Amino acid sequence: MSGGPRTTVVMLILAACAAGALCRLWSPAGPDAAVEMRAQELVRVSGGQPILVLVEKQGARRLGIPVTRAEEALIESALQGARGLGNTALEALGGRVLRASIDGAASAREFRGHLAVGRGGAELRLETSAGEALSVALQAGASIVADAALLDEAGVTLEELRGRSAHSVRAEIGPAPVLGI
Q1: Quick one: which of 51, 94, 100, 171 could link to 133 by a disulfide (CB 3.0–4.6 Å)?
Q2: What is the pTM of this model?
């Protein structure tokens, strides 16, 4: 059989697929795409609630994520460069933390999150609280993404987040208490 029309059609289809893939790579992300974020700081708002402030890498919107005091301690140490035991154990088993994603709000004070972990070519998404996902991802140096619609809905300016009674946690961090002493 000579290559004739069949080969030409196959080549045209492959070329069209390649052109479509390139166009998709170069086109801007859709409105529902995840927005890459970075941890900016920990603050406390009225009542002492710790909030991790995430800021867009390519923008100015901020997202305040309430965290527990335990998550606050892990996040603060991660922001200072410490790596956690969980991340070290995961790497020893051949896995790694790929990213933390903030997907939605479970309530007015709690955000839903996922932690993506990988081993080899496999990826596993673990559903968890946003604070847990963020503390593990920060310790691992993994990326953080937020749902674009959530950021549009819950994003705030720095002035709105700080308010009058918020202050930086870094300024008040002292040595950790040992057995209540």
Answers
A1: 100
A2: 0.69
DSSP state of 156: B
Residue 97: burial class (beta carbons within 10 Å; 0-12, 13-18, 19+): buried
Q: Cα–Cα distance between 173 and 19 in angstroms, integer? A: 54
Q: What is the CATH number of domain 34-168?
A: 3.10.690.10
The pLDDT confidence band at residue 18, using thresholds 50, 70 and 90, is low
**CA 23 to each of CA 10, 17, 19, 27, 37: distance values in angstroms, whole numbers, following the listed order:** 20, 10, 6, 6, 25
Q: How far apart are CA 139 and CA 76, in angstroms?
A: 10
Nearest to 154 by CA among 56, 41, 63: 63
CB under 8 Å to 91, separation ≥6 — which residues? none
Q: Are 61 and 155 in contact (CB under 8 A)?
A: yes
Rounded to whole angstroms, how far apart are CA atoms 43 and 75? Answer: 12
The pLDDT tens digits of the residues spanning 107-147 come to: 767 889 999 999 888 999 999 999 999 999 999 999 999 99
Least Cα distance to 97 among 71, 128, 66 occurs for 128
